[in-house]
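Co-fold these.
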Amino acid sequence: TQLLEQSPQFLSIQEGENLTVYCNSSSVFSSLQWYRQEPGEGPVLLVTVVTGGEVKKLKRLTFQFGDARKDSSLHITAAQPGDTGLYLCAGELEGGSEKLVFGKGTKLTVNP
Amino acid sequence: GAGVSQSPSNKVTEKGKDVELRCDPISGHTALYWYRQSLGQGLEFLIYFQGNSAPDKSGLPSDRFSAERTGGSVSTLTIQRTQQEDSAVYLCASSLGSAREQFFGPGTRLTVL
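Predicted complex below.
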């Protein structure tokens, strides 16, 4: 059973387009993180959200944590080839131990 | 060091052989995690060390897998009698103590022939 479901699994778009990646669960999380991973490297933390309804912006990336803290989204505006990579959501389960649960990731390709 | 380092970066071994994977965390980080990333899958938690506490081994898939952390710093993940299904990228991460702020190494790609 996958605790965090990410969609879509693959996304190929043209430079300049907008996109949204979703991370959903039936479980409640005390925090949720988004990472980006490039080939041959480990994931790099982009953002952490902890409050239901929280919205954080990182340049062209907008992250939202659902009101019930069960889901999150990542929206990229005017995607660029440099945004290409594997986007992973990860969360700390409410009342859980000091571990992160990861989604399977969204592989994004931005074509010039 | 500037970040988490792992060695080797690639390891090819024959089925049945033992392998050791090494992780050097960021200096001062008390928490250390091992994950496995298979093709098309997310990160699968394996084991977690926090300071001098007993490690959380709940993610180890079988008794062929073990890990230790010496002196609260370097960690070694050992896989005995490797099987083809063990082929994956093994990632190590460290943090100051919170699961939320993990810094990952580049991983070791293990291929079992």
